[in-house]
Amino acid sequence: xxxxxxxxxxxxxxxxxxxxxxxxxxxxxxxxxxxxxxxxxxxxxxxxxxxxxxxxxxxxxxxxxxxxxxxxxxxxxxxxxxxxxxxxxxxxxxxxxxxxxxxxxxxxxxxxxxxxxxxxxxxxxxxxxxxxxxxxxxxxxxxxxxxxxxxxxxxxxxxxxxxxxxxxxxxxxxxxxxxxxxxxxxxxxxxxxxxxxxxxxxxxxxxxxxxxxxxxxxxxxxxxxxxx
Length: 228
Hints:
Layout: H1 2-14, H2 18-23, H3 30-49, E1 62-68, H4 73-86, E2 89-93, H5 103-108, E3 117-121, H6 124-131, E4 138-141, E5 147-148, E6 157-162, H7 171-176, E7 181-183, H8 195-206
Parallel strand pairs: 1-2, 1-6, 2-3, 4-6, 4-7, 5-7
Helix pairs in contact: 1-3, 4-8
């Protein structure tokens, strides 16, 4: 009986899906088949309880968008809306060029603004002291960054840092994270991208390896949305 149990456990660890077990079920007795499924189910529950995944793509990615001294309320509202759409956090570093109570911020975020996971910081150093990001968890954006944005790290937790619309990020901050600076390619005819556009590009690129998510049902062949 001990040998049989060990064999069922080994098989459960070897086959990573129910389909794989069914493929080999012809050579397995019915009683052992039931024990294998039970073992796989128990192991899956244990991995879930311990928050461990055998596939790194299954791990929930944590994304933070950091705006240092943003000046235009409309951009911040749009970025907040994008953060909410992706389950990301938004951090605003003072000074701000607008009031968060302004109608323009709320209008850009529509009726979603109150649901944005927002944190307001007095300065960048306080943000760093509290959040304690590692170097490989930082992606600092500048048009003179060292690396293209599609090379940003695919760490579980990542902070995407952007400067103000007219001044960008301070040289001291860029020097501080010189090995973690990135750029989004643009032509010489353009000074920069709109801040909310840049944040959206970088945020979705950082989610390339995320577990697929989409809150809307796909269109059916008849052209109408399928009922949930």
